[in-house]
Amino acid sequence: SFSYKNFTLDIQFTGSYGAEVFSFYKRMCGIYHGDRNGMIEQLGRWQSKDQPGDGIHFRPTRTPSGWQRDPSSAWVQDASYLRLRNLTLGYNFDQKVLDKMKGLRLYVTGQNLFTITNYVGYDPETSSESGLAQGGDYLGYPAARSFIIGANITF
Questions:
Q1: pLDDT in tens, 86-112
Q2: Whose CA is closest to 90, among 69, 112, 108, 71?
Q3: CA distance 33 to 3
Q4: Which residue, 46, 16, 41, 17, is CA-closest to 29?
Q5: Nearest 5°: phi and psi at 22?
Q6: DSSP reduced 3-state for 65
Q7: Is residue 36 within 8 Å of residue 62, measured between CB atoms?
Q8: Per DSSP, what are the bridge partners of residue 108?
């Protein structure tokens, strides 16, 4: 929180360093399905004995088994991030400007304005699964960005 003359500025950052998320989405689209659009990573997939690929991505198949079905660290992603969670800029009017009011404050607030991350999903904070699968991302919705304009009036 900062203030200068009649202006106020409140800033809230949140973040995490070293967090990891299991990407259920990458597991499904990156490995299983050879009959639909895949992720760019699939360019390094196994294609033949002569073209073994990157050693991480298997040949696409509709019937996964063994290594293709079992959880793998290949689907774990770095979910470190820094997010500007809340920013509020306000102005408090002097009492001499006000007639019958005791106070007037105008403000504008922005929430979830930006996130700095290398995470490829929508939101590194997501946990779209429940129960034993918490910490996994199946493309859960990202935190909504919102803007609020308001006034606090005291009589």
A1: 999 999 988 777 777 888 999 999 999
A2: 108
A3: 55
A4: 41
A5: -85, 120
A6: coil
A7: no
A8: 89, 149
